[in-house]
Design brief:
Blueprint: E1 3-7, H1 12-23, E2 27-31, H2 42-48, E3 54-57, H3 64-69, H4 71-92, E4 95-101, H5 124-136, E5 142-147, E6 150-151, H6 161-170, E7 174-178, E8 183-184, E9 187-188, H7 189-204, E10 212-214, E11 220-221, H8 222-233, E12 237-241, H9 256-262
Parallel strand pairs: 1-2, 1-3, 3-4, 4-5, 5-10, 6-9, 7-12
Antiparallel strand pairs: 8-11
């Protein structure tokens, strides 16, 4: 049975991907700080990857604000961990699927954004993802998926916008909207995982697909999102907040390449 290592296996996407892989007939191994194991340690990574044909590299400091507050930690995890993954894959001849982000584009000139748009990272997190793409892109057998505002599990980071809004509304509190007109391409976890599975099958078949972004092509403003949550819950108040200077204010991706290349 084919065995695949998932880094960040206890996270929002990783936990769902492990379950989906096993349901599809794959064996899995995982490495995650929350369940033991650290991609920053090359020995731990090598041990976790024993018997695996490929690595899905999700492990990262995934919150933009956390990386901005501690860029050294982001570099150690996102940069150092990815270097360890690339080195191990090169040594053992494994494929790598790297989870990148729509943050690599920075503030786009026009919407929707396609995969060939220029990369202009505007925060510490995005810079680690651009560096990771360059590193993994140098491997002979790889794929890169750019993800966008993935949501859809109750155990997500509590400060991510959708769970934060829902929790505030359920508590009858105030939903603080940091950028009312800021708009993003929100993608459900199940859809993102389905795209990752399609990429994994391509990699297992010997292919190296082009960079794809897993996006809906629909932009939802934070103000509209907050209003929907309040309407659905039937509670909560709305208040404007001050946007952070290091955040992208708008993104909507073009899903056509993922449809053409993967049938996603």
């Amino acid at each position: 049975m084919t065995r695949i290592l998932v880094t960040g296996s206890a996270g929002l996407i990783g936990s769902g991907l492990v379950a989906a892989l096993e349901a599809a007939g794959f064996a899995t191994a995982g490495i995650d700080l929350r369940s033991g194991g650290d991609v920053r340690d090359p020995n731990e990574l090598a041990a976790a990857a024993a018997g695996c044909s490929g690595i899905v590299h999700l492990a990262a400091i995934s919150r933009v604000v956390w990386a901005e507050r501690d860029p050294d930690a982001a570099e150690a995890t996102n940069g150092g961990g990815t270097r360890n993954v690339a080195a191990l894959a090169a040594e053992r001849g494994m494929w790598v699927l790297f989870a990148s982000s729509r943050e690599v584009y920075g503030q786009p000139d026009a919407l929707p954004v396609g995969e060939d748009a220029p990369l202009r990272p505007m925060n510490a997190y995005a810079r680690t993802k651009v560096a990771g793409e360059a590193l993994i892109g140098g491997l002979p057998h790889h794929a890169i998926a750019r993800l966008s505002n993935v949501y859809g599990a109750t155990d997500d980071h509590p400060d991510r916008v959708i769970p934060a809004f829902v929790r505030a509304a359920l508590d009858g509190g105030t939903l603080t909207v940091e950028g009312w007109d800021h708009a993003f391409d929100f993608v459900h976890r199940d859809d993102a995982i389905r795209g990752l599975l399609l990429l994994i099958r391509r990699l297992e078949g010997g292919g190296s697909p082009p960079i794809v972004q897993l996006v809906t092509g629909v932009a939802t403003s934070l103000g509209s999102l907050a209003e929907r949550v309040v309407a659905a819950v039937g509670a909560g108040a709305l208040a404007p907040g001050t946007p952070r200077t290091f955040d992208v204010s708008r993104f909507c991706g073009d899903p056509r390449r993922a449809a053409e290349v993967l049938g996603w």
